[in-house]
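Design a sequence for this backbone.
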């Protein structure tokens, strides 16, 4: 088991969005602060966007932990490919609101009555919708109408819409301009810089029980950043498999060439690497953006390949943004 070999008590690079492992970059701190501020002050609509794999769901899970600690009622819609009635069904079920019928008007009345009861009790209710870029225009309009559930001074329901940049493009459509105008706060997640990648890896190792002894060489972390383009989910993929390979070879700290082997295994070497931090030219900037876009387009395929990796026995792999 590589965890024992490296002095860890758990896998530090599990791909699951564990809120304990949320790494607070400046951008992430701003996003989390914006979300908590908007909810506490009943701002209504809040938007969280970011590229695939940049930690939106992990951030939401940290937010949910905080909300539960504040005894805030929450509903979390993770499947956004729903019809209007299905969405209302999901919301009522997650809020634990009983409904005797699937008639839309009755469901809305039950929701409004329940929200008023929470408001009079001094409680808040938050609806979080993940992958919101997949919502139909009809459902987006229905969500907008939910913000009409209000008193004369405050919104009864706080709504967080989160999704990929395509969500921002969808919100520019004339058909949803009323919803766009109601968004009071916009938050974003972004890829890691090289410096942040060093901090991200070090923090995950610390949480997993690292004792301070080097586990990755400096060159290995630079190579991780180059091939991952700073996307946390890809950083996790590279680091997890590099640790497995280093354990098999009984090598510590992890050298750069093992990271390169993993990158080739998952065809990341076919994607243009990121440019150096020092390079500032316009052309290099364009190449970096193009490479990042290609990486994001292939990320789902890479993760599917990861799930199919069966070469290493379960006792070695133990556990998997």
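Sequence:
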């Amino acid at each position: 088991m590589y965890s024992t070999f490296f002095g860890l008590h758990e896998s530090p690079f599990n791909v699951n969005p564990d809120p304990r492992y949320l790494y607070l970059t400046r951008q992430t701190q701003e996003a989390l602060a914006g979300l908590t501020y908007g909810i506490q002050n009943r701002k209504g609509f809040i938007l969280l966007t970011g590229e695939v794999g940049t930690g939106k769901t992990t951030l939401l899970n940290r937010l949910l932990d905080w909300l539960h600690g504040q005894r805030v009622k929450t509903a979390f819609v993770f499947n956004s490919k729903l019809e209007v009635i299905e969405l209302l069904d999901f919301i009522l079920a997650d809020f634990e609101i009983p409904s005797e019928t699937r008639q839309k008007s009755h469901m809305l009345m039950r929701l409004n009555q329940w929200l008023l009861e929470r408001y009079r009790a001094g409680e808040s209710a938050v609806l979080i919708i993940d992958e919101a870029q997949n919502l139909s225009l009809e459902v987006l309009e229905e969500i907008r109408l939910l913000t009409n559930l209000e008193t004369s001074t405050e919104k009864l329901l706080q709504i967080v819409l989160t999704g990929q940049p395509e969500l921002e493009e969808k919100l520019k459509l004339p058909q949803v301009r009323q919803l766009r105008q109601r968004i009071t706060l916009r938050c974003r997640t972004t890829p890691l810089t090289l410096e942040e990648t060093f901090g991200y890896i070090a923090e995950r190792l610390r949480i997993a029980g690292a004792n301070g002894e080097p586990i990755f060489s400096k060159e290995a972390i630079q190579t991780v950043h180059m091939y991952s383009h700073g996307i946390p989910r890809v950083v996790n993929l590279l680091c997890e498999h590099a640790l497995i390979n280093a354990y098999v070879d009984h090598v510590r700290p992890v050298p750069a060439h093992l990271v390169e082997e993993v990158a080739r295994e998952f065809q990341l070497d076919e994607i243009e690497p990121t440019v150096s931090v020092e390079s500032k030219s316009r052309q290099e900037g364009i190449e970096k953006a193009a490479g990042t876009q290609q990486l994001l387009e292939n990320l789902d395929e890479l993760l599917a390949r990861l799930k199919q990796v069966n070469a290493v026995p379960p006792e070695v792999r133990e556990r998997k943004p």
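The two ends are 23 Å apart (CA to CA).
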